[in-house]
Amino acid sequence: VKLPPCPVKAADGKTVTVKLWHSLQRANEDGIKELVKRFEAANPNITIELTALGTYDALLTKWRSGLEGNG
């Protein structure tokens, strides 16, 4: 699978960090790690910070907390 280039440009060459919360497990988690690795190689100014939260309920709780400004 060929990934398209990211349309986001890091401002003035500065590094941008994107936090990605997920509940993926086993092969799916391995898959997203590989996609992140390839994305970061193609976009050196963008870093993806993966956080595995275990369950979808934990992910939903974290997401709601983030919306409220507590994440």
Structure commentary:
There is one protein chain. The protein is an alpha+beta fold and 71 residues long. Helix content is 41%, strand content 20%. It contains two helices and two strands, in the order E-H-E-H. The chain has helices at residues 26-42, 56-67; strands at 16-22, 46-52. Strands 1-2 form a two-stranded parallel sheet. The longest helix has 17 residues, at 26-42. The model has no long low-confidence stretch (mean pLDDT 82).
Produce the secondary structure layout:
Blueprint: E1 16-22, H1 26-42, E2 46-52, H2 56-67
Parallel strand pairs: 1-2
Question: Any key phrases for this structure?
Answer:
2 helices, alpha+beta, 71 residues, two-stranded parallel sheet, 2 strands
- Average pLDDT level: 82
The major sheet is characterized as:
2 strands, parallel
Distance between the termini: 33 Å
Oligomer: single chain
Q: If strands are numbered along the chain, what order do they take across the biggest sheet?
A: 1-2
Count of alpha and pi helical runs: 2
